[in-house]
Specification:
Layout lengths: L13 H16 L5 H13 L3 H4 L44 H10 L4 H6 L2 H13 L6 H13 L12
Helix pairs in contact: 1-2, 4-7
Length: 164
């Protein structure tokens, strides 16, 4: 079985040292450490060569801590290795509703009809109420909403992107 290197002995670079110094400055600005403590810890952070040397600088402080000092999840030996930067992609299906239809309905019938079409009933009733109670001046809101729907698309009531 192959020996994994100790993560505490991983060498740190300039970016890690600067992140540690920035977070120490945040703790100093919050009054958690004194100026002398801040200066000595920042100096130690810039002199650190490994994660083991940076960890004690944050041991007595609450979050935030540098991300690279967070405890790592150790997968079971039979699991495939997963790197920290990998995330599972979430693919949402498209809505059966059209963004063009929603946008045109919002512009042509500016009473929230396009939002009724997409299933956003609460927003549609709000737009309808604004138009009615403002004696027609409130049509600007649904019309602008229709233009935004045409330009950027939107979602239906289930959070799915509208089709082109």
């Amino acid at each position: 079985m192959a020996q994994h290197p100790d993560p505490e002995e991983t060498r740190v670079g300039t970016a890690e040292r600067e992140e540690a110094a920035r977070l120490l400055a945040d703790h100093y600005s919050q009054g958690r450490i004194t100026q002398d403590e801040y200066e000595s810890r920042v100096l130690a952070a810039y002199e650190a060569m490994t994660r083991r040397e940076l960890r004690p600088l944050f041991q007595d402080l609450p979050a935030p801590h540098p991300v690279y000092l967070a405890p790592r999840f150790e997968p079971p030996p039979f699991a495939q290795p997963v790197h920290a930067y990998q995330q599972q992609a979430v693919v949402m299906p498209y809505s059966p509703k059209s963004k063009i239809a929603a946008g045109v309905l919002q512009i042509v019938l500016p009473f929230g009809i396009g939002r009724f079409y997409t299933g956003h009933v609460g927003l549609a009733f709000a737009q309808l109420a604004v138009v009615v109670f403002s004696c027609g001046i409130g049509v600007v809101w649904p019309m602008v909403d229709g233009i935004v729907l045409l330009a950027n698309g939107g979602t239906d009531a289930q959070g799915r992107r509208l089709r082109d």
